[in-house]
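Checklist before submission:
- one chain only
- standard amino acids only
- sequence pasted in full

Submission:
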Amino acid sequence: MIRSIARMKAIMIKEIRQLSRDRITFGMVVMIPLIQLLLFGFAINTDVRDIPVAVVDQSQSAAGRVITESVRVTQVVEITHRFATAQQAEQAIQQGEVRAALILPKDLTQRMVQGDVLGQWIVDGSDTMISSAIMSLQNMPLTDFDFEIKPSTHKTFEVALFYNPSQRSAVNIVPGLLGVILTMTMILFTSAAIVRERERGNLELLITTPIHSFELMVAKIIPYIFVGLIQVAIILGLGHFIFGVPINGALSQILLGTLLFIAASLTLGLVISTVASTQLQAMQMTVFILLPSILLSGFMFPYEGMPIVAQWIAEALPATHFMRLIRGIVLRGADLIDLWRDTAWLAAFTVLGLLVASKRFKKSLD
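Returned file contents:
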């Protein structure tokens, strides 16, 4: 019995020493629960605030300015744009510049005296949390006026929900799920690519071949691009036929946007693969990326409800840009030119990731 305890003690000491020397694994032991705590404690917020909206004040009156200010001080929305026509506001919603627009008609003052509906919110209904927050402003009280306002027998504002008038959660979830699944599989596939060659003893063979580091990185990701496209067809196809998710954008735009994200995710996995020493470390680092990608990308919780620091972190993740891209194309019928900021970011991330991965692989040969 004593000898058995001694043998187990020796193995335990050996495992502790080995863990302490494995800096990446030891770091993950500390960082994964720490990041989860910070993400859920500070970054995740279902109480949506500061939604970017536009105002179209066709009345150009003092009443219109007071109503606009009354809406702003609720802190539910942040007025970031002003347009002359409702058509301009609708285009801004389609391009993702704003999430909603308040339309105030020319006869606003007369409506206030008669007790009619004062205006209309047009809302990007593809995000149910955003649309619910805007709908909470339908019956907001208005008191800061020098003349008596006849009580309205209707709501203060009408609300028109674009792209998802029935507020079905599947319409918002299915395109976002595409980003989550591609993030998980694409990064996981390539994060162990270089490490696997090293563990199998194939790295020496690659060193002796005339292939350049950049060529190797590109060749590593191309087969997985086809895997990603198969997943896209499955998710969008089943989402459309089973859950009735509309596909309002052109299939060519969906294909090009998805290819950009697949390439960005694969190159991120390659960078991880050049950093990790073992496949276990590669998987741990992948989890380290997956958690913020899922929680901060806007898939589960609105981007607008996050603190500014969390938004900065989210902007560095490919999944955040793809969420905007795929929802904009699939649900709002936008194209890559409309969403050029996210398109350019994914393209730049892919090129930079390939350069970093090829450079790090080259250094490992010295």
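Reviewer check: The radius of gyration is 26 Å.
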